[in-house]
Amino acid sequence: MKRVTIQPLFKYSILFNAVLSPAKDINSNLFMSGRYALERSLLELIKKHKQFEKIYIPNLICEEVVTIIENTGIKIEYYNINHRLQIDTKMLEESITDKLSVILIVNYFGFPSQWGRINEMRKRKQCIIIEDNTHSLYSSLNKKKLGCYGDISFNSFRKILPLLSGSELISNTKDIVFKNTHESRGLNISEIMYSLRGFKNLFMKKSSRKKNINKNKYLPPEPIDIFSKRILGNYKFDKNKIKMIRVKNYHFWYNYLRNQDLNFFDDLKLNENICPYVFPCYADNNEIVNKWIKWGNEHNINIITWPKYHPSTIPFLNDDFKKRILCFPVNQQFDLTHIIR
Fold it and tell me: 194: part of which helix (H) or strand (E)?
């Protein structure tokens, strides 16, 4: 049995299908990953707004985001995310003192942030909102796609689609314009190995996270790889089918785990507008975390902790649950009801 992964396995059949079709140009800003799309947005804002010196980001954030921001020289101020994965928007608004405020908002795990309250705050403050939509491709709120709520947004194709890289940087306001890039590149070693995950079952038995490069180290930005770009331009993914299977797998984990020793994020409401990235929950202690990761390895299921924090973020973690979040896969390439009994 193939290992049930968080992110979809790359499919060469899709690549061959795309290669055999006439090439189409993509009029978008496509980068290797969300971190580089974020960097491009920050550098453009620095050029446009000389008073931009500080960004407000959540304390539930992965290390790559912090590394990119620190590399630009922008100061970071953290705001709190509570155990319901919600922002205290009143406290955030009171902490904003700059004439121009740039705020990073994350749509966690495929679910929308509190965009009603955020938009109300934006009316009272001079804010530029950057929407981190890397978890939430294909999700929407009030018939409007996530990724369209911030002034700037970026996503991550590889988290939901069987690609090797890719993040689209989008401006949702005429006041911020990004010059479209048509660049692409060949595959790097990491992406070649990533493409072979489906054939490396024994290799993937143990978590590959330990094999990753030091993401704390800054790496120069790169565009999307040429294979993923060709697939995005030439292959039509069935969004409704992807959402349907991911929702079904999400419900599976909800029922399978609800009487176990894990805590759910009950405020995350699954409906027809949501395309979940994973099934998230959190444990009360590290022993429970280790137990479920071991269980996953024994059943050939990739269960991960998220996020991996940057060292500078750790002093601002005022809730222990943030250190023990577990993510269970809802990958549309697998029907969990036929795998786990």
Answer: helix 189-195
- Dist CA 265 CA 260 (whole Å): 14
d(CA 189, CA 220): 16
pTM: 0.93
Give SS3 for 209: helix
Average pLDDT score over residue span 66-95: 95
What 8-state DSSP symbol labels residue 28?
A: S
Question: What mean pLDDT is predicted for residues 133-145?
Answer: 97
Q: What is the Cα–Cα distance from 191 to 182, expressed in whole angstroms?
A: 20
Among candidate residues 39, 43, 99, 29, the one with its CA nearest the CA of residue 65: 39
Count H helices and E strands in the chain, helices first.
Answer: 9, 13
Q: What is the DSSP letter of 9?
A: P
Integer Cα distance of 128 and 337 in angstroms? 43
Residue 34, pLDDT > 90, answer yes
Lowest mean pLDDT among 205-214, 284-293, 304-313, 332-341: 205-214
Q: Is the dihedral of CA 39, 72, 177, 145 positive or negative?
A: positive
Q: Alpha-carbon Rg of the chain, whole angstroms?
A: 20
- SS3 (DSSP) at 14: helix
Query: pLDDT value at position 299?
Result: 95
The number of CA neighbours under 13 Å toward the Cβ of 73 is 7
Mean pLDDT of 67-88: 96
Mean pLDDT confidence for 302-317: 97
Domains and CATH numbers, the chain: 20-234 (3.40.640.10), 239-338 (3.90.1150.10)
Q: Which residues contact 203 (CB under 8 A, 6 or more apart)?
A: none
